[in-house]
TrEMBL record:
Keywords: Acyltransferase, Transferase. PROSITE patterns: GNAT. Residues 1-155 form the N-acetyltransferase domain. InterPro entries: Acyl_CoA_acyltransferase (IPR016181), Bact_Acetyltransf (IPR050832), GNAT_dom (IPR000182). This is GNAT family N-acetyltransferase. The keyword Transferase applies. GO terms for molecular function: acyltransferase activity, transferring groups other than amino-acyl groups. It holds the Pfam family Acetyltransf_1.
Length: 183
């Protein structure tokens, strides 16, 4: 197995590998997005895309980036973004090699932490990261703006939504009928 920096010619392969992490667009646009990421990483000393090859074939990749731990904590960390291994190369040491590349990059940069994320549904990836000693720091939850707005509106009390609850409307109508019948 060998590790190397990504080249523009890797963009189609990386677009396939990282399909679940890329924006929803047609394949051409996704490849263009990856080409831009490769170009940006090649020009920055704080970024690197590492491609793992197994017997000369692409087997996996990871985007490495120096950043703060989070916007509130200025401690530097190397983010190992989207470490992916093609299914036929899993359990061949590719994931370990990619994470070793992340540690080496952190050491080169003088950074004391490495962070990564695995999709919540990827049990194998999460177990692998845990075996390496990476513990959970936070849970990233995502929703569309539209869906979140709808849920927030539904959770507001009725008087804040500008409407009245059905029971209040029915009680008001009964009260009006009683006052009309008595008058």
């Amino acid at each position: 197995m060998t590790l190397r920096c990504a080249e523009p010619a890797d963009a189609p392969m990386l677009a396939d590998l990282w399909a679940d992490a890329l924006r929803r667009a047609d394949k051409h646009d996704q490849v263009a997005d990856v080409e831009l990421v490769i170009k940006t990483a090649a020009q920055s000393p704080e970024q690197r895309i590492v491609v793992a090859e197994y017997d000369g074939n692409p087997a996996g990749a990871v985007l490495l980036r120096v950043s703060t731990l989070n916007p509130l904590n200025p401690d530097l960390t190397v983010q190992a973004l989207s470490p992916h291994v093609l299914p036929k190369y899993r359990r061949h040491g590719v994931g370990r090699a990619l994470m070793e590349a992340a540690v080496t990059f952190a050491e080169e940069q003088g950074v004391g932490h490495v962070a990564t994320a695995a999709t919540s549904g990827s049990r194998d990836a999460n177990r692998f990261m845990a075996r390496l000693g990476l513990g959970p720091q936070a849970v990233l939850r995502v929703a569309s703006t539209h869906a979140l707005r709808a849920r927030l509106t539904a959770l507001r009390p009725a008087h804040e939504r500008g409407g009245r609850q059905l029971t209040q409307v029915l009680a008001a109508r009964r009260s009006q009928r009683r006052s009309q019948a008595a008058g």
